[in-house]
Amino acid sequence: MTQVYNRVALIGLGLIASSMAHAMRAKGLAGEIVGHAKSAETRATALEIGICDQVFATAAEAVAGADLVVLAVPVGAMAEIAAEIGPHLAEGATVTDVGSVKQAVIAAVAPHMPEGIHFIPGHPMAGTEYSGPRSGFATLFVNKWWLLTPASDADPVAVARLQQLLEGMQAKVNTMDAAHHDQVVAVVSHTPHLIAYTMVGVADHLAQVSNSEVIEYSASGFRDFTRIAASDPTMWRDVFLTNKDAVLDVLGRFAEELFVLQRAIRMGDGALLHDYFTRTRAIRRGIIEAGQDTSAPDFGRAPAAAKPDGRA
Ligand code: NAP
Fold first, then answer.
1. CB of 132 closer than 6 A to ligand 1?
2. Whose CA is nearest to atom 19 of ligand 1?
């Protein structure tokens, strides 16, 4: 595989950045990988496990001389980082991000990008409930979508080069409008996470009534909710605060559907329930056919696919 960038600066060294580092190293896509994270502990870990050749105490120092800068911090931290790195970016560099929301990140970052810098927002549609530098692995993006939302006047050569890197990590790349992106992810990712958080919260209340039976017998559907609800609290707080309109729209529709099912249960309308569940089962089959999951039980997740790092 050919080298696509000479020096990649990863700002934020958690699950996504460390997975990118592993994948870039495995495929020889970057000459040098440097990084910055908020805490000295994370920076030391990044050196220890070899995801970075060098780490820097500030983002400004890390981006100097980089031809690709990846913003891999929680969405709420993007503006502060962009303001800091703006004056230190190398002429002609590409800046991308991996934030789960696109319109809010563009509003936070674009004003700080100087002339001659290619800002190409992005979002890998891949993740686990683990976080931190030790949680990454080289195959996280294999056969997963990586959505790019470049401005209409973005330089096609810079976009093609970034796409080459992402495809080198075996991701599938698509470009779309940022507003459309935010609506799509509200349906496929953000609202399902909120529902999982809610269901685990409900069970937590019940557990206090039923002496932890909810935890004891959680080997069924509830367990999958707990996996999703274990996702990083900072990341998800920022996602809901910044994709507010789209999430509220989907939640409204969800509540309507819930009432339809609630009424069917109350009225004993088995035909409605059966038809509904038949349609949803077909959607699951479609996801497997599209290669976005396997048909193995337990969400198709092999135990080794995700690595705990002990963080929240
Ligand atoms: P993570 O594992 O929690 O790591 C976040 C990293 O950002 C940590 O290294 C943290 O440093 C650093 N950081 C936080 N605030 C910072 C600041 N102000 N300055 C410098 N560094 C800072 O996060 P992640 O899961 O990789 O997520 C990163 C981004 O990817 C988020 O925007 C998220 O929306 C997006 N994303 C996540 C997933 C997923 O499933 N996790 C999927 C797609 C996209 P310390 O360790 O020192 O605190």
1. yes
2. 38
Averaged pLDDT, groups of 10, the chain, 312 residues long:
94 98 98 98 98 98 98 98 98 98 98 98 95 98 97 97 98 97 96 93 77 71 85 95 97 96 98 96 87 70 43 30
Residue 149: inside a domain: yes
* Residue 122 sits in the same domain as residue 195: no
The residue among 124, 141, 176 that closes a domain is 176
Q: Are residues 151 and 199 in the same domain?
A: no
Q: What SS3 class is residue 48?
A: helix
Place of tokens 């970052």: 109
Say how many domains are in the chain. 2
CA of 135 to the centre of ligand 1 (A): 11
Question: 308: closest CA among 73, 126, 131, 127?
Answer: 131
Q: What are phi and psi of 9, to 5 degrees?
A: -105, 120
Question: Residue 205: which CATH number?
Answer: 1.10.3660.10
**Do residues 158 and 186 both lie within one domain?**
no
Distance (Å, whole) CA 90 – CA 81: 16
Pairing of strands 118-124, 94-97: parallel
108 occurs within a structural domain: yes
122 within ligand 1 shell (Cβ under 6 A): no
Length of the chain: 312
